[in-house]
Amino acid sequence: MGARAWGDSLSLPGLIVDHTAVVDGVVRMSGRMAASQATCPDCGTASASCHSRYDRTLSDLPVSWAKVDPGLSVRRLRCVHESWSRDTMLRVLRRGDPMAEPPPPARVIGIDDFAWRRGHSYGSIVVDLERHQVIDLLPDRQRETVIAWLRENPQVEIICRELAVASSSLAG
């Protein structure tokens, strides 16, 4: 059984097989997606603007008693509209606007954790749930920090701890 037999017989929709080889009884394959564009999950617009590439190693069951080691090259595409990722939103919020007016006193807030630097440092985000605006970014997610913030903002009457739950319930 040679590599040529595998390459000629393999046909998967949406996948272009670039290379196949049988090495020590293991079928090694490399391929890429056939689609030249993808749809943004946030705004639904098609984009072909390539942001970066990365390789994926997949696991598969043996085919005809031979171990299969498929590799896939994947492109990460950039949205052509202004739908922002969470990381972009946090970058913009961290920069801040020195000319912005202070937010009005919030009565109903949501507090949730976020990563300043994933795996290393975390903070807390405070959102005015009535106006759907970020009020503050706290430097950590410690209980004492939140209590101190609440003491400085006695107008707060209602606190929601899970922003994902609060956002979905307010939207419906």
Task: List strands and helices in order, with pairings.
Blueprint: H1 3-9, E1 15-23, E2 26-33, E3 38-39, E4 46-47, E5 49-57, E6 67-78, H2 86-95, E7 108-117, E8 121-128, E9 133-138, H3 143-152, E10 158-160, H4 163-171
Parallel strand pairs: 2-6, 7-10
Antiparallel strand pairs: 1-2, 3-4, 5-6, 7-8, 8-9
Describe the protein's architecture and organization.
Helices cover 21% and strands 40% of the residues. The chain has 172 residues and is α+β, with helices and mostly antiparallel strands. It has 2 domains: 3-78, no CATH class; 86-171, no CATH class. The chain has a 4-stranded mixed β-sheet.
Pattern of helices and strands? HEEEEEEHEEEHEH
Number of E-type strands: 10
N-C termini distance: 59 Å
* Number of helical elements: 4
What structural category do the secondary elements indicate? alpha+beta
Summarize the structure.
The chain is α+β, with helices and mostly antiparallel strands. Helices cover 21% and strands 40% of the residues.
Task: List the keywords.
alpha+beta; 4-stranded mixed sheet; 40% strand; elongated; disordered N terminus
